[in-house]
């Protein structure tokens, strides 16, 4: 099974962008990672079991593309969250939470993005990232703890 790119692009590009942005924290680079992912999808002559298999392949590929871009010598500098014009939030709290997540280390951002924003189970995240399920659980636990601490500090600062 191979779905046409015309169907997949509008269906997944924003979510793939979010995953790439979690790794790169740069809007232009994240957009490049998404574009390269779709180009690879079109160029590869692969067969997939179902749409969920395609979705997993897209997320694994976009994360790998983002990591490649991050390692690239020519990588541009990070820009502020406001420059990431492709991300729109309906509520201010959602944007605040996303900005806080973006302050975390990449390993934490990536697992949070896949688990909470993309609703992947731990087993699938392990497969996408190429790590053990126990490592995913540890990363999620550490990321939640770090996120809680940062949010608590911000909340305490605002109430003083």
From TrEMBL:
Domain of life: Bacteria
CDD domains the record matches: Sigma70_r4 (cd06171)
A matching Pfam family: Sigma70_r4_2
Entry GO MF terms: DNA binding; sigma factor activity
GO biological process: DNA-templated transcription initiation
Keywords for this protein: Sigma factor, Transcription, Transcription regulation
Domain RNA polymerase sigma factor 70 region 4 type span(s) in chain numbering: 99-147
Ranges of residues in domain RNA polymerase sigma-70 region: 9-71
UniProt keyword Transcription regulation present: yes
UniProt similarity note: Belongs to the sigma-70 factor family. ECF subfamily.
Xref: NCBIfam families: sigma70-ECF (TIGR02937)
Protein name from the UniProt record: RNA polymerase subunit sigma
Organism: Dubosiella newyorkensis
Lineage, highest ranks first: Bacteria, Bacillati, Bacillota, Erysipelotrichia, Erysipelotrichales
